Each structure stands twice: as structure tokens, then as C-alpha cells.
Design the sequence.
């Protein structure tokens, strides 16, 4: 089940029945046991994967999270309260957790989608607020140093895919654990997952440039294969985003459209569950272009329309 990634880091691929359907969890060996990086969703399949590891006698010292999307934090509460393993998050992630459990995020996303021409949140989208209803055992800040296994890692705040996303970098080993900030074969979805409008694509671009400044031998992502040439992959992802931005502009040349209309133009008619990520990607591109002064908006009967300037 475990795949050796570096001398003291193993990868465990945890399957689950939704979304990406699997996540890379990393086990970093130390004298006190293993540090687990991310957990998988709250699901029977993910629990079964971890139960097999725990039955092997492996000692888990702590769980550390890159960000609070469901497939990364889903079993953190389970680890803490049923297995007695302490959980550590960034302060930014802790604030996201509180927002998830104290506000009606589902309602906010539903309102956001309808304002931008969509039908709202799919009925099958489950309420997952319960997975955030626990207190972390410890918090770390941006630019802190944290012990993962026996190695010291820098914490790098990399908002974009998630507002609270953090990467971890070992200068000594030239290893970076990058979560969902960058993936080898696909681009992470940049979305407004709390239902609040902001220019998250600009945040993502800034974060991509930030990690290019590090000397990285091996980058370990939250899904898929490891990345051996991080700076090159950053440039590839940025180029692909720029192509999509031009497609958005071409689609609203001299005409007003909602984000939903533009999404359908670019991606076609998708199943309502599969439609949410492309819609979010389209909307965040429009907000980014608006920030550059290349797109304008108006509101008609409660719906937001965009047009290229």
C-alpha cells in the first residue's frame, strides 16, 4: 500500500467514492512515529484504508493538513477523536473551519451560483459541516517552521485553490509537499468554495510565482504523480490558464453573458454534479479579468452579466 517517495516519506493513496476519488496522503517518518499529511474524505472507503495501516502497527505521531477541502481534512476529526492522534492546522485553516461550521456555506454557494446564471447547488451535495466541528491540537502560522517526522519544514501560504492552502518545504532535503497547489497532469480548480467573491485567480498566480523561487528536487502533490521539475510545471499551468482567459474574452466580445452561459460555451452541457467545478473556474476567470479592467459587469433582474471591455 505504501510507496517510497524519498528516504523517509511514503505515499499512501486513499480511495473514496466522490470528487477526485483518491488523494495522496504522505507519511513522514520520525523517531516518535509518522507525521500524516492529509487524510482523505469522511467515507467508509477512506477509513478502511487507514485501518489497514493502523493494524500493521504503524505509530502515527500527528496529522498535519495542507488545507481544509473535504478530501484533505475529511478524517482529521476521526483521527483525533477515535484514534487519539493530535491534528495540526494553520491559523488560516482554523478560521476556514470555523466559517464552515458556523455559517451556511451551502446557502452562500447556492446564492452565488444563482446570481451568476446557474441553477444553484445540486441537491446531492451533502452537508459536510460536521467534519469541521473539532478543535485542532495546535496551530502554525505563515512562515513558521514545523517538524514533520525528524525534518524541519518551512510553511508557505499559497492561496488560490483554497484560501487557506499551505505548502511545506524542507531546504535541507529540497522537498516540497504541495497539496493541491499544483498537480502534474491537470490544473487545480480555482473556485469560490465559501460562496464569497474575491480575486482568487490573482492570488493563485501570485502563489505560483512564490513557489518558483524555491530550489525543489521533488514536489509531492495531493493527487497524481510527483513533480520533478516544479518551475516548468508552474509555467505550463500559467500558460494553460492564459489560454482559457482568452477563450473567455473571445466568448463575450460585444455581448453580455452570465458566467453560466460562458461555462456552457466553453465546456458544453455537463451533468449538474460535474458542472460545478467548470462553473467556478469560469467565474474566477471573469473576476480576474474584471480586476484587470478587461471585463465589465452589470446586474439585470438579480443576475450578473459580463462583457469584454
Sequence:
Amino acid at each position: 500500500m505504501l510507496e517510497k517517495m524519498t528516504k523517509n516519506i511514503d505515499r499512501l493513496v486513499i480511495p473514496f467514492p466522490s470528487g477526485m476519488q483518491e488523494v495522496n496522503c504522505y507519511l513522514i517518518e520520525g523517531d516518535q512515529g509518522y507525521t500524516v499529511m492529509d487524510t482523505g474524505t469522511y467515507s467508509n472507503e477512506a477509513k478502511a484504508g487507514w485501518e489497514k495501516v493502523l493494524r500493521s502497527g504503524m505509530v502515527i505521531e500527528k496529522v498535519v493538513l495542507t488545507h481544509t477541502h473535504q478530501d484533505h481534512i475529511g478524517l482529521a476529526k476521526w483521527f483525533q477523536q477515535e484514534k487519539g492522534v493530535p491534528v495540526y492546522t494553520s491559523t488560516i485553516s482554523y478560521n476556514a473551519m470555523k466559517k464552515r461550521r458556523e455559517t451556511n456555506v451551502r446557502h452562500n454557494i447556492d446564492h452565488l451560483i444563482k446570481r451568476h446564471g446557474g441553477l444553484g447547488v445540486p441537491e446531492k451535495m451533502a452537508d459536510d459541516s460536521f467534519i469541521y466541528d473539532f478543535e485542532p491540537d495546535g496551530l502554525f502560522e505563515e512562515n513558521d517552521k514545523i517538524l514533520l517526522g525528524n525534518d524541519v519544514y518551512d510553511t508557505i501560504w499559497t492561496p488560490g485553490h483554497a484560501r487557506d492552502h499551505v505548502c511545506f518545504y524542507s531546504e535541507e532535503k529540497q522537498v516540497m509537499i504541495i497539496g493541491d497547489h499544483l498537480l502534474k497532469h491537470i490544473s487545480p480548480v480555482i473556485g469560490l468554495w465559501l460562496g464569497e467573491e474575491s480575486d482568487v485567480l490573482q492570488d493563485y498566480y501570485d502563489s505560483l510565482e512564490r513557489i518558483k523561487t524555491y530550489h525543489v528536487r521533488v514536489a509531492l502533490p495531493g493527487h497524481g504523480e510527483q513533480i520533478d521539475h516544479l518551475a516548468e510545471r508552474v509555467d505550463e499551468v500559467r500558460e494553460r490558464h492564459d489560454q482559457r482567459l482568452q477563450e473567455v474574452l473571445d466568448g463575450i466580445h460585444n455581448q453580455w453573458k452570465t458566467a453560466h452561459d460562458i461555462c456552457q460555451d466553453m465546456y458544453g452541457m455537463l451533468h449538474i454534479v460535474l458542472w460545478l467545478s467548470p462553473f467556478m473556474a469560469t467565474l474566477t476567470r471573469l473576476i480576474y479579468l474584471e480586476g484587470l479592467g478587461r471585463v465589465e459587469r452589470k446586474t439585470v433582474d438579480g443576475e450578473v452579466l459580463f462583457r469584454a471591455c
User: Anything to note?
Assistant: The first helix runs from residue 44 to 55.
